[in-house]
Amino acid sequence: MIQAVMVMSTQGKPRLLKFYSYQPPEKHQDLVRGVFQLLSARPDSVSNFVKVDAIFGPGAKLVYKHLATLYFVFVFDSSENELAVLDLVQVFVETLDRCFKNVCELDIVFNFNKLHTILDEMILGGQVIETSSEQIMRSVEEIARLEKQSNTTSLIPKSISERFSR
Amino acid sequence: MALSGMRGLSVFISDIRNCHNKEQERLRVDKELGNIRTRFKNEKGLSPYEKKKYVWKMLYIYMLGYDVDFGHMETVSLISAPKYPEKQVGYIVTSCLLNENNDFLRMVINTVRNDIIGRNETYQCLALTMVGNIGGKEFSESLAPDVQKLLISSSCRPVVRKKAALCLLRLYRKNPDVVNIDGWSDRMAQLLDERDLGVLTSVMSLFVSLVSNNAEAYWNCLPKCVRILERMARNQDIPQEYTYYGIPSPWLQVLQRILMGTDVVKNVNKNNASHAVLFEALALVMHLDAEKEMMSQCVALLGKFIAVREPNIRYLGLENMSRMLLVTDVQDIIKRHQAQIITSLKDPDISIRRRALDLLYGMCDVTNAKEIVEELLQYLNTAEFAMREELSLKAAILAEKFAPDLSWYVDVILQLIDKAGDFVSDDIWYRVVQFVTNNEDLQPYAAAKAREYLDKPALHETMVKVSAYLLGEYGHLLARRPGCSPKELFAIINDKLPTVSYESYIDVEIQQRAVEYFELSRKGAALADVLAEMPKFPERESALLKKAEDAEVDTAEQSAIKLRSQQQTSSAIVVADQPPVNGSVPASNHLTLVKMPSQNITEESNVTYEEPPVEIPKENGAPVEVESKVENIPETNIESKVEPPAAHPASQADLLADLLGPLAIEGPPAAVEQNPVQGLETNQSPVGDLALATLEDQSNSVQIGLKAEWRAHHGRLVLFLGNKNTAPLLSVQALILPPSHLKTELSSVPDTVPPRAQVQIPLEVVNLRASRDVAVLDFSYTFGTSLVNVKLRLPVVLNKFLQPITLSPEEFFPQWKALNVQNLKVQEVVKGVKPLPLPEIASLFMSLHLAVAPGLDNNLNNLVACTTFFSETTRAMLCLVRIETDPQDRTQLRLTVASGDQYLTFELKEYIKEHLIDIPRVQAASPPVPVQPQLPPAAVPATYNDPGAMLAGLL
């Protein structure tokens, strides 16, 4: 089971936090800090795997990808395969790339709400739900379409009605 | 951009980004939270768009680590919004912000259910996602059937069904009852026919979880799983699969194909998916415990993996090799890769280094220990801080477990201390000291090594400790070597002492000594005087030893004893060794108990320094047999443990026995009474107790001794069975007949006691509650042709579980008043008391472990005492005693006893009474009857009826 997905900057600032096994809110920043300290000490061109028993409890493992100024971190237990999760990170990144056309940190900073939407199409309750980037994109585009649709249909009458009510 | 943005949110995020420090950020966040709070308060003027925007801002603030303790209801209520955008935000933010126990979730449970059973697929997806992410018992109870329906519905699109599968999994984890096994195995089989990979992936996750709880029930799905796997594994055109976890048996064929089909070296470049499959396949091979040929194929494959350039593959190669260690028979094949694994210790990646260390640790055995441990030691020089502790611990464990010889072990540990002293725990160097102490051959070597290290300019504190210890104990073995005279050794250790920081030691006592010694060392010339040997005491001959000297010396026999005792192989400890010269060194190397330097001193003095009471050491070291005048002792001595020590002449012998240890054991009472040490009679609490019985006639003499140590409600006793004859005792049996208030555990008794040997039998006693009953030792043996059976009362009596305590008047009186309860405080006028002056009653109380508190009672004819009673039921319980005497009539007094337990009060009162009343003691007065081993055993049963009788077996 995947326990957490984190995206953080190479400065240690959280960009996306999603926990699939409950962690008390006051612990979140400690977890971010712990992971950041661990990762920032690792040089490039080493493996993508770290055991994180000390941070997330016994048996916890972590797979991460360091891309430009971001760390993409997936934390999971022994029932997952490291390489498979690494692929999943790749799928996540590829999907972001398609979604934002050459994704950069700023996209992620300002669209953290969209990251949640994308992640929900990929992982549900800590289990992988879809591994195909195309499939994920299809779902996300449908959501975008729905959003736009209801925005155009709902916002106009709303604003009119508001104007009238004043 | 695929998804629409929100200007307000972007502005806020960029404001946060523009903050230069944490303080600015906090101000901006507080301002925003205040704003949101006021806007939420007046919900009327809030457009759905604004609501959505504020909720996102809240989530952002929450992610930054600020406490967001409001707005939960507004968030949850968005779920009920009629339009998709608000609903979506409501669902997403709720699943991030709230946990399953949040009460607000109950508010929307109906909306969620309506979304799930409604026809709108997008709503279904949103609801399923949130329920799957949050879980929760209430969701589980009210939604599971609807989720199941979605999963098996043929009209639903895959995008809904895959979410339903995982949602159901989450609910199932929370509450397994939601899936009814009977119906589900068939449904699962159907679901496995699914062609959509997304659905299949989700269904497989659900399936794995169901199977791991009840594999039998889903056995019928097995062929389908195999078919799926075959489809995917053989036709590798499907990019990612997670569909093959943990499903048993007939996959072997498939696996072999995977193993052989994946050409490792070629595929190293980025082909994660196929490698992922391969590692799962390996896990399966291990799980199935396949035949050796396949296993060695796996190890060979892993061997290639750990040598490739790609770090991920190296990592997994090492990790999986560690797992392979659990498989029997492949260790040797793994060892072939040892050189490569050692190289991995130098990998730039700490993850890989850790795996390599784990693997080396796991694969180490006697054959490669030397090489591996030396590698670890070398690595210690360069290893980063984070790994050093683990590294030194592992090196120490391996060195101890697999040392080919002990001098190598000493070398390794000393090197460890030298290189990573901070990480060598005390346990490790204690262990070295222990080995060296127990192996004479090792001592000169260890001392010499320690001396070498002392030449180094900088030493770790632990190194100073261990070398000081080794040189202190075995420095004399080096005396002839250059630079190793006692004086030089002292000088060099003394030089290092300032580096040892005992002055900051946590134990105040040690700190105190440290400061004293340190001051002493600065005394300069005067130091020599202080340290000079103590002048000899003026000659004064001990009365006891004078007696002892009269006895014969039989050295030839002594060496025979030693020889025999060495051949003895009983589980109990046999100590018939020649006593040591000065009487304070451990008696023999048969002692199995090994002392650690840290163990506390009282224990040490009780156990290790125990000497066999068979012989009495003389000052010049020549052992002396004391066989004379034992006739009168047995009875009186044993009795004295049960009777009040001050009430009988024998008690003095007993007390002295306590004071002098084994020396006094066989001393005749006459000698004891003359001894000047008598003045120490009031000594409060002797460390151990001794009881002794000697059964003998002309040809048969057996000695039974006892040594005891008491801690709270526990007693640790050792019975000594000494055979003083020249023939063995056979069919030896010892049983404890415990009264109901004691739990006793007697170690096994050797069947035979060889001639002139002594056997020690440990006995554990636990006091369950207060009682005056006495435990009895039923002891029998065959000597020659006759059976001897004796019953001896053990001195496990009430006052052994008492610990005197001194109370101040402020403490005493409230307690005394609080216990004014019927049965808890009992008063009785005792008549027929031995007429004793008050000080003698006081010392009688002392001997009963009752602490007399002077000054608590103003009346000089009265006496107050306090003690603590220990038992398993009462734990530590305070007892208070008061005696009011009548100066006119000393044969009566009023006794008041109080405690928090009515049985304890009663028993203690009776116990004290027994000691105050003068009972004519026929038994003690009569001379003991010598053992008549010739008597037929039929005569013995008469005594069985009276277990309380002492030495009753002596018919």
Automatic annotation (TrEMBL), chain A:
Residue intervals passing through the bilayer: none
PROSITE patterns xref list: CLAT_ADAPTOR_S
Keyword Transport: yes
One Pfam family, short name: Clat_adaptor_s
GO biological process: intracellular protein transport; vesicle-mediated transport
Protein family per UniProt: Belongs to the adaptor complexes small subunit family.
Protein name listed in UniProt: AP complex subunit sigma
TrEMBL record, chain B:
Main location (coarse class): membrane
One Gene Ontology cellular component annotation held by this UniProt entry: AP-2 adaptor complex
InterPro entries per the UniProt record, alphabetical: Adaptor_Complx_Large_Subunit, AP2_complex_asu, ARM-like, ARM-type_fold, Clathrin/coatomer_adapt-like_N, Clathrin_a-adaptin_app_sub_C, Clathrin_a/b/g-adaptin_app_Ig, Clathrin_app_Ig-like_sf
Domain Clathrin adaptor alpha/beta/gamma-adaptin appendage Ig-like subdomain: 686-795
PANTHER family, per database record: ADAPTIN, ALPHA/GAMMA/EPSILON
Any single Pfam family the record assigns to this protein: Alpha_adaptin_C
A GO term, aspect molecular function: clathrin adaptor activity
Protein name in UniProt: AP-2 complex subunit alpha
Gene Ontology BP, a term: clathrin-dependent endocytosis
Assembly description: Adaptor protein complex 2 (AP-2) is a heterotetramer composed of two large adaptins (alpha-type and beta-type subunits), a medium adaptin (mu-type subunit) and a small adaptin (sigma-type subunit).
Keywords, ordered alphabetically: Coated pit, Endocytosis, Membrane, Protein transport, Transport
Record-listed a 1,2-diacyl-sn-glycero-3-phospho-(1D-myo-inositol-3,4,5-trisphosphate) binding positions: 7-8, 49, 53-57
Biological role: Subunit of the adaptor protein complex 2 (AP-2). Adaptor protein complexes function in protein transport via transport vesicles in different membrane traffic pathways. Adaptor protein complexes are vesicle coat components and appear to be involved in cargo selection and vesicle formation. AP-2 is involved in clathrin-dependent endocytosis in which cargo proteins are incorporated into vesicles surrounded by clathrin (clathrin-coated vesicles, CCVs) which are destined for fusion with the early endosome.
Subcellular location: Membrane, Coated pit
Family in the record: Belongs to the adaptor complexes large subunit family.
Bilayer topology term: Peripheral membrane protein
